[in-house]
Amino acid sequence: MSKIRCSWCGENPLYIAYHDTEWGVPVYDDTKLFEFLVLETFQAGLSWITILKKRENFRKAFDNFNYKKIATYNDDKFEKLIQNTGIIRNKLKIKATISNAISFIKIQQEFDSFSNYIWGFTNGKPIINNWKNLGEVPATTALSNMISEDLKKRGFKFVGPTVIYAHMQATGMVNDHIIDCFRYNEV
């Protein structure tokens, strides 16, 4: 008997693996939270499968998502990234990743960790939704709007409400698995 999954992952093995092992699992590690922020930034306007296929290329290009290194990237490194065919070569998104790393570190200094900051919006616990089908899942919420606005005030770029809600879903701040999905009760 096959497992019931959220319909968005379809039959693609990469999507299925991501859905079954990562999506919606609460993440409290700053490096992993930054990784998802970078990936969601680059995903804006594209499909998530495109990003998943290039994830390892992003990992290599951005020094294993080491935000401390990324915050120090200079013009030479920027040019290398623009020439890297393994990633999405959007100049604004690359610049945003560098400036977001700087802002990320500032939040760490203020809150002791980015995790403390971002999870503070949900009192440190996932929001459990009860969706029956994919059509019920929103692209944004009042909370993603609030977080987006706060991040923008703190200097972040490419962090609109949709990007932030996707980040919340990916990092388990919200459980948006449909209630029939086998992962719903596991995360």
Describe the structure in brief.
The chain has 187 residues and is mainly α. The protein contains nine helices and two strands, in the order H-H-H-H-H-H-H-E-H-H-E. Strands 1-2 form a two-stranded parallel ribbon.
Descriptive overview:
The protein is an all-alpha fold and 187 residues long. The protein has helices at residues 13-21, 30-43, 48-61, 67-70, 75-83, 91-111, 114-119, 142-153, 161-170, and strands at 127-128, 174-175.
What is the strand and helix layout of this fold?
Blueprint: H1 13-21, H2 30-43, H3 48-61, H4 67-70, H5 75-83, H6 91-111, H7 114-119, E1 127-128, H8 142-153, H9 161-170, E2 174-175
- The chain-level structural class is mainly alpha
Series of H and E elements: HHHHHHHEHHE
The average pLDDT value, as a whole number, equals 97
- Shape descriptor reads globular
What is the CA-CA span between the terminal residues? 21 Å
List keywords for this structure.
187 residues, mainly alpha, two-stranded parallel sheet, 53% helix, 2% strand
